[in-house]
Amino acid sequence: MTQAPLVSRMESQDHDRERACWLALSQTPGLGIAGCWKRIRESGSAQAAWRQLQACADRASLQPSQVPRDLLEDSQRADVRIVTPVDPEYPDRLLDLHDPPLALHVRGTSCLREPPPDRKTVAIVGSRRATPYGISFAESLARDLARQGIRVVSGLARGVDAAAHRGSLRGGGPTLAILGCGLGVHYPREHRRLRQEIEACGAVVSEYPAHTGPDPWRFPARNRILAALADVVVVVQAACRSGALITADLASEIGRDVMAVPGPVGWAESEGCLQLLADGAAVVRSAEDVLDALGIHLSPAPKRTDLPDGTSGEVLAALGCEGARVDTLVDRTGRAPGLVAATLVRLEVEGRVRRLPEGIWVKL
Questions:
Q1: Every domain of the chain and the residues it spans
Q2: Can you give the pTM of this predicted structure?
């Protein structure tokens, strides 16, 4: 877009100084992203924009942390790489936004740059208060997409986001987590281990300084990065005022495909998805629907719809779509608690069920 020519010109300049100035501008109070881009476009480079800003400012009022070189070195010591629009790793598709991030703070092994042309990126988003069915579906969808070489991005929030990351990791694919806080803040706290797993074979990304807290307004801003990175945005479950719908709207504005998973009429967590479908979003029933939208057509594989004999079949049937706890399964099947628990473990090993953190077992 309008910024792209500027970015290509900057790559011939003193790279480290230029990158440091992009970072410093991004952390200068009062400028804002749009203001920074305007200054950089008018000045011709981040270095020139920074010099002009310094000339207008009272040097005595500047904080030591605002020295560009120091900011960059602090990030390197924290094992965080800074990716700016003059870096080869900066994804071109972020320039589709009217306010592209000035600097991305990245920790992990995966490169942010778009995968090869034959590899796509899918954002999977949804409710923090997703039902067991929604969590199970999101995880299975991400797993199946990852197995086909699709990169999954999400926001590391509770509910659907975390399920999408877990599924991608289990499918053997890299996953990107885009945060609404700084990398020095573990939010939600219970996702600390999941975040470490993502960093080991994917990447955790933020446009905010390390110790920036998870202020509510930062999450809609984060969502624009999610939308821009994706070829397709899939909403799994969303209430009528869910932040996932903001991501879907942003995706539509910049020409990304939006898809939604249908849910029962009358469920609060289905209302947003049903509205998206009514507005023309494509339906997602399985990973095949998403792959078709990406132009990837697979030979149909036989689906495992048969139930095993004996107790395993009874337990699977008793789980239903929403899943159940052990005591509920005992009531539904009439089997002893020990037998039900042992059957669930066997089914988990076979890849048919999974236990969610709340103690609910769901079918995969």
A1: 4-102, 121-293, 310-363
A2: 0.82
